[in-house]
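Subject: for your reference before the review

Hello V.,

The reviewers asked for a structural picture of the protein, and I figured it would be easier to keep everything in one thread rather than splitting it across files. Below is the amino acid sequence we used in the manuscript, unchanged from the supplementary table.
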Amino acid sequence: MATLEQRIQAIEDRHALQDLAATYFVAIDDLANADDILACFTQDAVFDMSAIGYPAFAGIDALREFFTGVVNGLEYSAHYGSNFKIDSLEQDRASVRIHAVGMGLPHGGERSKVYVQYHLTYQRIDGQWKISAIRGTPLMTGD
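And here is what came back from the structure prediction:
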């Protein structure tokens, strides 16, 4: 059986992982600047939405270019996450699934909506959780 300290650490880690996912969603939806979004990621992070028709990016510089385009290109953005499920939680690594609805309206463009299951991989660096990978798989087609 896990010790009380181990159980408390697992609870704290779960909250930290959920908070980081929420921070990521809020940073995208604020459309303030790419740095707020990038603060959620490791330097070698992977962002792969190719399964839902978007490109894949690897490394913080590629993510900076992508998210700068997102921030500058959207009139609005809204992400709603639910069904937070930890698949694995180790001392410095975790994997999580989150169901999400993401919507956006490009400047002068048509609204888009995706229903996706995010597969997130986290890494603890210097005592702080960061996202090392996000991969999306479709849950259903958008409308």
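For the response letter, the relevant points are probably these. The first helix runs from residue 4 to 30. Residues 42 and 132 are 5 Å apart (CA to CA).

Happy to draft the paragraph if you're swamped.

O.
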